[in-house]
Structures are given as structure tokens and as C-alpha cells.
């Protein structure tokens, strides 16, 4: 009997154990009506969906607003461009650049969106239960997240100095962030980029995806910020010398309109359909993607506003015989942003027959639209005709071909220029390496890198004695105006004040101050961080 009782007790114990386990499993919450970080990221496709949000933010940087808002990061109010429609506007009047100014405020928001998305990817990719085909696949996803996080901290540190480093997902309210130093932000970005350049793919899965070359290009700049000249030279050289893939300057006519006469390689670079590596452009390192007639393809307005923003409004120059109707051939520029006289004229002195300054690439000749005695329709508008300030601020100033076209999609001059935007292009890699060589005191090697660009442009070669930071900045303008983040370049060098004071639009020259080498921390950020003090940059 005792033996039977013992067996019965053992059986009951086993059943109770099984029931308790079953109850425990039953009570375990497995939410299936919404996504969480525990169930939303279980395979590569799900991670790529979140990373796509970062590419969306990148599109937004180039196409978030009309007027002068998008060109802010491209150098609004500095040595390269300005708002020509009135002097009482921020960045014409630098006194209006305050902690409440909108363009820098949204710049902070975009960067922390990059950081939030990236931290989620990096953290979730390392959790158990994710279905990876290989460790390499996992590391490439993490590398992409780290690239974007580094990109964001470069974008913050260059403009604002030190900002709070957030290196993991924030899962509950936090109001006690503290500013890190600028150098700490650059160093943090460098570490992320070292990982990214190691594990990113050499070739992109599809146009617009970041690659090893993009990581090394950005790493070169961050190393310059840290005065790691050798590190910058090595990173740029991996791109230039082919270790990161087959990148080369385009030297012959190519692309969608290559058979048209009177044009050249620099005109080809900005024709619609010609920007991506995958379609034959081997100097394209990283390109923001825009598409016509595709949901989400242009973010806002149904088209990028780049032509409308940068090109003059010759079509509405009634004094010169125009009727206010924009034809396909001229585009419908709104002259919201005008290149400075330094960009349009001064930097081209002593450049010979530089292809980047031909009539095809920078249109300087404009003609009467109807008879305006003593001038006839089709006559060249002479300088003597341009007597009022608005004549040269709005109606007649050079149109750079990189910002527009003479053949619009569907013949619509207001919304028919939809091309992809260069974020990184190989000429800038050469210029970064030249800057690092200059920092190291090797001016002969800096000159050699710039001469690679001059050879392609058929511009006179230079010597070591020509090289200083001003020359490099002017060369960046000749090659990259409207492409590089000029605001970030000048701020990281501490030269925004100096260059604007010497080469900017007159109201900007008269109002800019040395404090503007760093921008104000948005007051919204300071006021919302109630648990710790975020110090404002000096002078604001």
C-alpha cells in the first residue's frame, strides 16, 4: 500500500509540475496586436524597414520646404549664397539667428531622429531570437545603423559643438541629458565609422544605400576634425585607390543626354538619371534618391524645389520683354537663393577655360524676350540695362546647371526637374585628402590631389605654394557649390565668420559675429531638459 501511495504522489507531483509550467507559459505575454522591440525586429527585412526611415530623413533634408529653408545647410548667408529678396531675413541679418530660429531647430530634430532609429537597430540586432542567415548579415545591419548615428553626430558637432551622446534606446521619459564635448562627439562618430567601414558592403543592394566608401569618406572628415591627419589620409585613400570599390572621376560624356553638342561632363553630372553608381556614374559615393510619380518619391510638393529655389526668374523680367509665363527652356526659377558674387565671379579668376565655368555649366548670357527699343527680341541683355537692385538680385544672375534643366519632365518648368542629390561625390574625397595633407604640412601632395580635379576640368594646374585653406575652400565651391554641407564645413573649421565677413553678401558681412562660428542650441532643447542644465553656446 505504501509503495502504491508513493507512486501516486510521484505521479501527482509530475502532473503539478507540468501544470505549473503550462500555466507559466500561458501567463507569459506575447503581444500580437502591436509591434514592440521584442517582436518587431526578428529578421533582416524588418531591420531594413526601420533603416528606411533614416533614408527618408535624408530625403527630407533636401526637400523639406520651399524658399530658402533647404539651402540652409548648403551655406545660406555665408560665402556661397544668400536670400536676395530682402535684407531683413535670418542669415542675411545674422542678429536674427537666435535660440528660437527654426532652421537650426529642425536640424537638431532630424539628427536625433537618425540617432533614435539607429540605436533601436543596433540594440535589437544583437538580441537573441533574431533570424540571421550569417553573422556577416547581422554585422552589416549594425554597421548601417552605426553609419547613420555617426553621420548625425558629425552633423551636430560641426554646427553646435558638443551635444548629448545617446548610445542606446531611450525607453522611458528622460529629461537629464548632459552635453558631451565636441571632441567626444567626433570620437564617438569615429568609433562608429570604424565599425561601419569594416562591416558595410562594398556594393550597394540598390541605389542610395550606404557602402564602405561612404563610411570611409565620412571617416576622413571626422579624422580631420580630430587632427588625425594620417587617419584621414588613409580613409580617403581607401576610396580613391580602389580598396572600397571601383570609384573614378568621370572624364567622358555619359548618361541620358550625352549625345547633345555644346555640353560637357559637368553638365552631364546633373542631368536627370545620371547620378547613381548603378547607372554608370563611378564618382557617385552616396546619393539621396528622388523619383517622379512615385508615392514618397519626392517627400514634399510633388517635386524637389531645387530649381525654383536657386535659379533666377528671367521668365518674369517684364522690363526685358518677358510675359511672366515660364517656358520649358528657362525653368521657373523663383530666385529664393542666389550664389554670392564670390561664387559667381571671383573664384573663377585665373582658372583659364575651366569646364566648370562654361556657358553650358553656368549660364551667364540672357536675352530679351521681346522688342524693348533700342533692343530687339533675342539681343543679349547688357550690363548697362541692369540698373535697379532687383535686376541682378532676382532676374539676371548666373544659373548653375546643377540646379535645373532646359527639358523638364512633361514639359512642366515648375515641377519637372526631379533628379537624385549627391550627398558624397568622389571629388570631395580628393579635397578632404588634400585638406589632411595640408594639415600635415605636405602641401605638394595637397596640390597633387587638387590637380587631379583640375586635369578633369581642363583648368590650369597649381603648385604647392598656392595651397592654403582658403584655396581649398574656393576649390570646394568651384566643384561642390550646392552639394556640400557648407555650413558644416565652415563651422568645423571655425571659419564661418571669417569667410562670410570677407566674401558674403553685404548685409551678412555687416551683421555676422565671431560667436556665429557655432550655432545656438535651440531653446526648446534647453527648456525641455529640466533634470539637468544644458549650457547655451557663448554669446547667445
Give the structural class. Answer: mainly alpha
Quaternary form: single chain
Number of helices: 18
Q: Count the strands? A: 6
Order of helices and strands: HHEHHHHHHEHEHEHEEHHHHHHH
Rg, Cα atoms, Å: 27 Å
Beta-strand proportion? under 5%
Describe this structure in words.
This protein is mainly alpha-helical and 540 residues long. It is 42% helix and 3% strand. It is built from 18 helices and six strands. It has a two-stranded antiparallel sheet. A two-stranded antiparallel ribbon has the order 2-6. Helix 2 (44-62) packs antiparallel against helix 3, helix 6 (212-225) runs parallel beside helix 12 and helix 7 runs antiparallel to helix 12. The longest helix has 26 residues, at 2-27.
Blueprint (SSEs and pairs):
Elements: H1 2-27, H2 44-62, E1 81-82, H3 102-125, H4 135-160, H5 182-199, H6 212-225, H7 229-240, H8 265-268, E2 284-288, H9 306-310, E3 338-339, H10 341-344, E4 362-363, H11 389-395, E5 399-400, E6 421-425, H12 426-440, H13 443-457, H14 469-480, H15 486-493, H16 496-503, H17 506-511, H18 523-528
Antiparallel strand pairs: 1-3, 2-6, 4-5
Helix pairs in contact: 2-3, 2-4, 3-4, 4-5, 4-15, 5-6, 6-7, 6-12, 7-12, 12-13, 12-14
Amino acid at each position: 500500500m505504501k509503495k502504491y501511495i508513493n507512486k501516486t504522489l510521484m505521479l501527482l507531483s509530475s502532473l503539478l509540475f507540468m501544470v505549473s509550467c503550462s500555466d507559466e507559459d500561458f501567463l507569459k505575454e506575447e503581444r500580437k496586436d502591436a509591434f514592440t522591440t521584442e517582436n518587431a525586429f526578428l529578421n533582416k527585412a524588418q531591420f531594413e524597414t526601420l533603416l528606411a526611415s533614416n533614408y527618408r530623413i535624408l530625403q527630407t533634408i533636401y526637400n523639406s520646404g520651399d524658399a530658402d529653408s533647404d539651402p540652409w545647410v548648403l551655406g545660406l548667408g555665408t560665402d556661397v549664397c544668400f536670400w536676395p529678396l530682402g535684407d531683413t531675413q535670418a542669415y542675411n541679418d545674422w542678429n536674427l539667428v537666435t535660440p528660437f530660429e527654426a532652421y537650426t531647430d529642425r536640424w537638431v530634430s532630424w539628427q536625433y531622429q537618425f540617432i533614435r532609429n539607429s540605436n533601436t537597430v543596433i540594440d535589437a540586432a544583437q538580441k537573441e531570437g533574431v533570424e540571421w542567415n550569417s553573422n556577416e548579415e547581422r554585422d552589416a545591419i549594425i554597421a548601417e545603423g552605426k553609419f547613420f548615428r555617426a553621420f548625425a553626430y558629425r552633423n551636430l558637432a560641426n554646427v553646435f559643438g558638443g551635444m548629448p551622446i545617446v548610445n542606446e534606446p531611450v525607453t522611458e521619459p528622460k529629461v537629464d541629458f548632459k552635453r558631451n564635448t565636441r571632441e567626444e562627439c567626433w570620437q564617438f562618430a569615429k568609433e562608429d565609422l570604424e565599425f561601419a567601414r569594416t562591416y558595410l558592403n562594398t556594393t550597394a543592394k540598390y541605389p542610395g544605400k550606404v557602402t564602405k566608401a561612404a563610411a570611409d569618406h565620412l571617416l576622413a572628415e571626422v579624422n580631420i576634425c580630430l587632427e588625425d591627419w594620417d587617419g584621414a589620409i588613409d580613409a580617403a585613400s581607401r576610396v580613391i585607390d580602389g580598396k572600397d570599390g571601383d570609384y573614378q572621376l568621370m572624364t567622358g560624356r555619359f548618361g541620358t543626354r550625352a549625345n547633345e553638342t555644346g555640353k560637357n561632363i559637368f553638365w552631364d553630372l546633373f542631368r536627370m538619371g545620371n547620378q547613381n553608381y548603378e547607372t554608370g556614374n563611378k564618382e557617385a559615393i552616396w546619393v539621396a534618391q528622388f523619383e517622379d510619380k512615385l508615392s514618397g518619391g519626392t517627400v514634399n510638393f510633388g517635386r524637389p524645389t531645387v530649381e525654383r529655389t536657386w535659379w533666377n526668374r528671367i521668365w518674369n523680367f517684364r522690363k526685358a520683354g518677358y510675359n511672366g509665363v515660364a517656358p520649358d527652356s528657362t525653368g521657373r526659377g523663383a530666385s529664393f537663393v542666389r550664389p554670392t558674387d564670390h561664387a559667381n565671379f571671383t573664384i573663377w579668376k585665373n582658372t583659364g577655360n575651366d569646364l566648370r565655368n562654361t556657358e553650358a555649366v553656368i549660364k551667364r548670357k540672357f536675352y530679351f524676350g521681346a522688342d524693348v527699343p533700342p533692343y530687339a527680341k533675342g539681343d543679349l541683355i547688357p550690363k548697362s540695362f541692369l540698373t535697379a537692385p532687383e535686376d541682378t538680385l532676382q532676374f539676371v544672375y548666373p544659373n548653375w546647371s546643377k540646379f535645373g534643366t532646359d527639358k523638364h519632365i512633361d514639359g512642366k518648368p515648375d515641377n519637372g526637374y526631379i533628379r537624385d542629390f549627391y550627398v558624397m561625390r568622389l571629388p570631395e574625397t580628393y579635397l578632404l585628402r588634400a585638406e589632411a595633407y595640408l594639415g600635415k604640412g605636405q602641401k605638394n601632395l595637397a596640390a597633387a590631389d587638387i590637380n587631379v580635379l583640375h586635369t578633369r576640368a581642363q583648368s590650369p594646374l597649381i603648385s604647392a605654394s598656392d595651397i592654403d585653406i582658403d584655396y581649398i575652400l574656393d576649390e570646394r565651391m568651384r566643384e561642390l557649390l550646392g552639394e556640400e554641407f557648407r555650413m558644416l564645413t565652415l563651422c568645423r573649421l571655425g571659419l564661418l565668420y571669417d569667410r562670410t565677413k570677407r566674401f558674403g553678401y553685404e548685409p551678412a558681412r555687416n551683421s555676422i559675429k565671431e560667436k556665429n562660428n557655432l550655432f545656438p542650441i535651440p531653446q526648446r532643447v534647453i527648456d525641455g531638459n529640466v533634470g539637468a542644465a544644458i549650457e547655451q553656446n557663448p554669446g547667445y
